[in-house]
């Protein structure tokens, strides 16, 4: 072990050092989650060492297409983001909120015990750190907080990886969310790989991260390693698959609810809700109440929901948004425009998942650009009497 | 957010499918509310629904709700019996600007069940009726059998400075009053458009037509307030269901100034 490391002063870990990091996190009681290979995709799952990481794999992503391919090297993080995001752990797809039990003269309600599992996330990309920061504002930033999210988030240890390769549908540079992790992590790694090199330039972003890093076998990173990491970042930035022009976009979208382009998208969109499920910031949920067969025990369960379903907007008499055009408009306008009014930033971090995983290849950057290029010219109208 | 346990103290049948319930908490004080706000009411094992407070906010003894049975949850709530138990979270949401309208003409315009969320505003205004110039209560229902609070409407009409006008879309043999849509009642009352505050609650199409008629009569959009309805699951800004443009109806609404939402209200399926 070397001299104590100042927070911020980068060190180099070799693959064994990375393995030691995973072991150290597990020893501290964390469930370590990282990228693994499953059914032809990179998915985040429990890992116990670097052996579980998808060494030597990369991905090809295009609108509606995702394919894993072999790399020429054995890089551990040589791909972009897969279908899942860390949302599944901090904001799980299903969560029981409380249980009720019938009594002689009514019922009682019991709260669920707070979640106790502490997660360490290994391999969070810059866009994903931004997505977590966005969900922090959604779930913790208002008058009412989500207690389950608060507990899981408070316990989490975040290890970022600066992207060494940009996906074909990525546009984090446009969104100002990547590819370099600037803040919001405990540790951040940049994978340096070459014919005779495989190591990770590592910086601490928190006191907890620095303390853990100091226990790992590492060596100080010299100027050469820092330059190598900078050139990885420059290469990734130059390889962005897509761009999204943000200037004036919010105003254009908010002025264009009756733009003909919504019908154009609706003719392609299947309202399958894939885009909302894979999006790391989409936060909508529904609840369902049910009882056991005897009718004595009841529970309330919260589940991910999507603005693409008809039930989402149901009120007595029917859904508020029966048409796909209105649902896609809701999703895109919320994500890229209303989100700014509600939570102070765009709701999109440019991860590209909704483009890759849309079965018909609908591309948020293209749809947004179409509206921005020719927003509705009509001045905002006040209610005429038409129903 | 966990529902608190409340007991049904009394039930009054209003119409064939609508009942008014008085609820008292099992423990603790009755929370204060402002006219226009709503609670989430839970029927054991069936579910939760947003229901406006329909009683007098000055009554510290209970919360009053008027519920129409339209589906599983609302039916279970409307059928609750005295002594029965419901879960309750709230109160939530924004309020009618009743006190802010003092010194003005106050127009209260309700369609159908929309009279229930306006009833606390009527109670508050009538308790200080001397502080308003004129108060008008305009109410419309589909047919006479669906009209709510008819004895109270008659009582309110006897108050000095208060006009009550009621219309139905479809009359029957018992009906001797006006027939037609709610906005047509605006012709029957006097108000000074420059010094009027209007509170609107009812089906969205009624809101659109009434607001347009008020604008036509010269009432500024900022003087018109509407209560909006959207699907709600959490009532605390976390589930996303109730969005109406940038607003969350559970948090920023349900009562919103018309100038803020007029453009949105004119667009289908927002
Ligand atoms: C702010 C607010 C205040 C309300 N105040 C009252 C009131 O004072 N009295 C009253 O009788 N009703 C009121 N409603 C409407 C009431 O909440 C619905 O009638 C009720 O949710 C219907 O649920 P259900 O299971 O009985 O019906 P179903 O039709 O079976 O409901 C199915 C689904 O649609 C949703 N849903 C159905 N109708 C509505 C609706 N109108 N608004 C929102 N979500 C709906 C339900 O939550 C559920 O998810 C209010 C609604 C809102 C948003
Ligand atoms: S909208 Fe699409 S690109 Fe933006 S964060 Fe969500 S999934 Fe990623
Ligand atoms: S945009 Fe694509 S992924 Fe999203 S609902 Fe439509 S078809 Fe599904
Ligand atoms: S009801 Fe959940 S956000 Fe408004």
| Total beta-strand segments of chain B | 15
Main β-sheet, spatial strand arrangement of chain A: 3-2-8-9-10-11-1-12
| Portion of residues within helices of chain B | 10-25%
**Main sheet makeup of chain A:** 8 strands, mixed
Overall mean pLDDT of chain A stands at 94
Number of helices of chain B: 5
Low-confidence stretches of chain B: none
Q: What is the string of SSEs of chain B from the N terminus onward?
A: EEEEEHEEHEHEEEHEEEEH
Strand/helix succession of chain A: EHEEEEHEEEHHEHEEHEHHHHEEEEHHH
Question: What gap, in angstroms, lies between the N and C termini of chain A?
Answer: 73 Å
Largest interface: A-B, 57 and 52 residues
CATH superfamily of the largest domain in chain B: Nucleotide-binding domain of ferredoxin-NADP reductase (FNR) module
Main sheet properties of chain B: 7 strands, mixed
What does it look like?
The complex is a heterodimer of chains A (387) and B (270). Chain A has 387 residues and is of the alpha+beta class. Chain A folds into two domains: 11-238, no CATH class; 249-373, no CATH class. Chain A is built from 13 helices and 16 strands. An eight-stranded mixed sheet of chain A has the order 3-2-8-9-10-11-1-12, with helices on both faces. In chain A, strand 15 (314-315) and strand 16 (318-319) form a beta hairpin. The radius of gyration of chain A is 23 Å and the shape is globular. The N and C termini of chain A lie far apart (73 Å). The model of chain A is unreliable at 1-6 and 383-387 (pLDDT under 50). Chain B has 270 residues and is α/β, with parallel strands linked by helices. In chain B, helix 2 (115-127) links the parallel strand 7 (105-111) and strand 8. Chain B is globular. Chains A and B meet through strand 6, strand 7, strand 13, strand 15 and helix 11 of A and helix 4 and helix 5 of B. The complex binds flavin-adenine dinucleotide (FAD), iron/sulfur cluster (2 copies) and FE2/S2 (inorganic) cluster. Flavin-adenine dinucleotide sits between chains B (38, 47, 49-52, 54, 66-68, 70-75, 113, 116-117, 229-232, 254) and A (314-316).
